[in-house]
Request: fold
Amino acid sequence: MLRVAVEKIQRGMILARPIPLPTDPFRYLLQRDIEIPIDLKPRLKQLGIHEVWVRCRDLEFLEHVIDEELCEQQRQLYCQVRKNFEQVMRSSVSVVDIDVAHFQNSISSLFHFLKSSSFGSVMLQKLDAFDNYLMSHSTNVCYVALLIGMKLERYIIQERSLLKPKDAKDLRHLGLGCLLHDIGKMRIPLEILNKPGKLTPEEFEVMKTHPTIGYEMLRGQAPPAAAQVVLNHHQRWDGKGYPGRADQASGQMFPPMVARQIPIFCRIATMADIYDAATTKRVYSQAKPSVQVLHEMRTWCKGAFDPLVEQAFYEVIPAFPIGQTVRLSNGIEAVVVDFNPRFPVSPKVQCVRTPSGEPFADPSQEEIDLALYPDLDVVEVDGIDVRPYLDIQRSRPVSQLDPMLVG
Reply:
């Protein structure tokens, strides 16, 4: 099977994975092994579904990589976020009851699945936006943050040294904070939250209040480590984030936190939040390919991230997701079948069509590890020229920082 962008669905394509209903992700709009109706494409795009998995005889082995249980775990979290966020929207009081225990149980299930899965150390599949960006975004940020946290067990223990190691490395509070990190946006006026254009300086100041609003909503309900993620997920390593800090006695405002003043779970949430937001379609921007976002985070955000968290992030986020169709610099069309974190823009691919468009007789015999071919690059993804984003140095191994802290 392989990923196909909705706009590239062709007649005769058979679903390899069911398409969930946006309003109820445990029911399906279309079941697996059914031909996708061409006239359904506009509806899929309208529902925020950007890609589907389709059958491909020579790539069926990918079905064992993209585990269906992962999708079920993500949908379960999405449903819980939706239920709680809708409760917030219906309520006029400043504090609402959040089902923290239920969240914790679901996060534990996802975490144990990722720990036990042979492919659980790499991001495999985000949840589509469905009918609400904030809810799917919260689910995806939780997923990515857990993957990063799993890479940083020893570093997290070091940074949370006041706790026993067993408690320090417990990632449930990280996951909970990420699921609820944007809950304060439920109190932002919709004309600002859903504005399709650039916010004015005054509107942006209103938007910047959402971490504090969310923190106040959760105070006394969520564990302190999770509440800190809600409050400080927009802090930056170089001190350029928000919100600032207030002196409790005088009310005087101090600058935002910097570097290790920022709790480690907040530093992890920051990277997960930025990545998912940039790779997801929103009211004011189109989704960007992963390779482009990784390039922009490396170049536009220098100094914004904890270097060790950044290192772990690039080891779990593929520049080209597994199952994605790409075009190589020699004109061949190929499908990504594996990710090498040491050479992030040089995945292992299986060639499916020649430069002239003819299918290979036996694609299974046409597998190429691009890390071994420095003159061969991925140059196109979904019709987008990605050559400007390939400066993630394939020749420079990612893991050059302290190996004692990054697992």
In short: The longest helix spans residues 68-90. Residues 188 and 207 are 7 Å apart (CA to CA). The longest strand covers residues 24-30.
